[in-house]
Design brief:
Layout lengths: L1 H19 L4 H23 L10
């Protein structure tokens, strides 16, 4: 969950900087890609239930 929140925060910061600073539009694009990666990561975690399987010894 912390990785998901970190990726969302990074995407938000890159998006704001890319939108606000003239000539850094590529940061907005990178922010959008990071946001998509975070959503895919969250989707995979939810699909698998987020359970960790322990190895029986």
């Amino acid at each position: 969950m912390s990785l998901f929140l970190l990726l969302i925060l990074v995407a938000l910061v890159l998006g704001i900087v890319g939108f606000a600073v003239h000539g850094l539009f590529y940061l907005l694009i990178i922010g959008a890609v990071v946001l998509l990666a975070a959503l895919v990561h969250a989707g995979v975690r939810l699909r698998h239930g987020g359970r960790h399987h322990r190895i029986a010894r």
